[in-house]
TrEMBL record:
Belongs to the zinc-containing alcohol dehydrogenase family. It is an enzyme of class 1 (oxidoreductase). Keywords: Metal-binding, Oxidoreductase, Zinc. Coiled coil: none annotated. The keyword Metal-binding applies. PANTHER family: ALCOHOL DEHYDROGENASE-RELATED (PTHR43401:SF5), L-THREONINE 3-DEHYDROGENASE (PTHR43401). Residues 8-339 form the Enoyl reductase (ER) domain. One of its GO terms (molecular function) is zinc ion binding. It holds the Pfam family ADH_N. This is Alcohol dehydrogenase. Its cofactor is Zn(2+).
Length: 344
């Protein structure tokens, strides 16, 4: 099969012909219909993730059609499926309590096992997968990827966002835009933060109540002014110290910070603990979403409760993935890139 392979960090992915994946007994092989290009992939491409190295095939935001099923697989050939990026084992205490996104035995394609920057991907633990609604295109489904599901879990499970609350969103990439659209659906008021005016204008066009350019103003102070004392919830969607501290400092007393952005490297950063202490803030980490929450989210999208079409900006060929990753070194345009042509 054709795949885009990491050979050197910060260099173009190598387009190679590699062996087709073997089918796991407890899973399936998917013909990849679409795969999103995610900032988490960027961290791996730059050498910032310990499980990405020479020979890795990245890609964890995918959907596809079953072409082979293992003897213990739940799904069958021909099924169209969407995958959570965290594949819980199904047997451990975390999975038994419904928190499969915290499973210590989980598998994440693209990070330690071959991912979906390829024509085919093997998916073990296929009980995590979910049927893809006919009305949802593969490109949009892959565009939901980890960004929409992670944002939904962050807003509903971790932060418990309520109608009328102010939600600050730091970073208007895929997760940030997802958080904006979903928070508005929940009835919240949203202020977005970025350093690119084009992305802030785009977010305002999608319903953001206010926008702050952190390159020209103190974001935390501006948010406290806009909200009349601070946001009740703040979503950090980039994973760096500057936005993390702005997220903490923009909150009202008893506010909730939810850390979504994946920190790169060793993950160490200096945080304003005085703000957390003095305002008695809650500081949540979050990663992914349990697979059992997928059907409800997909049903809401299918019913039109939330329009996530603005998430998808462009479809690309596999050979263009390198350019998308390279662009993440600086300001990027609004919207998400999704690989839909694995021959180009």
């Amino acid at each position: 099969m054709r795949a885009a392979v990491v050979r050197d960090f910060n260099q173009d992915l190598s387009l190679e012909t590699v062996d087709d994946p073997s089918c796991p007994d407890n899973g399936v092989v998917l013909k990849v219909d679409a795969c999103g290009v995610c900032r988490s992939d960027y961290h791996g491409w730059t050498g910032g993730h310990p499980k990405v190295g020479d020979g890795s095939i990245m890609g964890h935001e995918y959907c596809g059609t079953v072409v082979e099923a293992g003897s213990r697989a739940k799904y069958r050939v021909g099924d169209r499926l969407i995958a959570p990026f965290i594949l819980g084992c199904g047997d451990c205490p975390a999975c038994a309590t419904g928190a499969s996104n915290t499973c210590e035995a989980s598998i994440v394609p693209g990070f330690g096992t071959p991912g979906a920057y390829a024509e085919y991907v093997a998916v073990p633990f296929d009980h995590n997968l979910v049927h893809l609604p006919e009305s949802l295109s593969p490109a949009l489904a892959a565009g939901l990827g980890c960004r929409v599901t992670t944002a939904w879990h962050a807003l509903t499970d971790r932060a418990g966002v309520q109608a009328g609350e102010w939600v600050a969103v730091h970073g208007t990439g895929g997760i940030g835009l997802s958080a904006l659209l979903l928070a508005k659906m929940l009835g919240a008021r949203v202020v977005v933060v970025d350093i690119v005016d084009e992305k802030l204008t785009h977010a305002l066009s999608l319903g953001a109540d206010a926008a702050v350019n952190a390159a020209t103003t103190n974001a935390a102070e501006a948010i406290r002014d806009i909200t009349g004392g601070g946001a009740q919830v703040s979503i950090e969607a980039l994973g760096i110290a500057q936005t993390t501290n702005a997220s903490v400092e923009c909150l009202a007393t008893l506010g909730r910070h939810v850390h979504v952005g994946m920190p790169s490297g060793d993950g160490m950063m200096t945080i304003n603990m005085r703000a957390i202490y003095a305002k008695q803030l809650a500081f949540y980490g979050t990663r992914g979403m349990p697979s059992w929450k997928y059907p409800k989210l997909l049903d809401m999208i299918e019913r039109g409760d939330v329009d996530l079409a603005p998430m998808l900006d462009r479809t690309i060929g596999l050979s263009q993935a390198s350019a998308e990753l390279r662009a993440m070194s600086g300001p990027t345009p609004p919207g998400t890139a999704v690989i839909t042509d694995f021959t180009a």
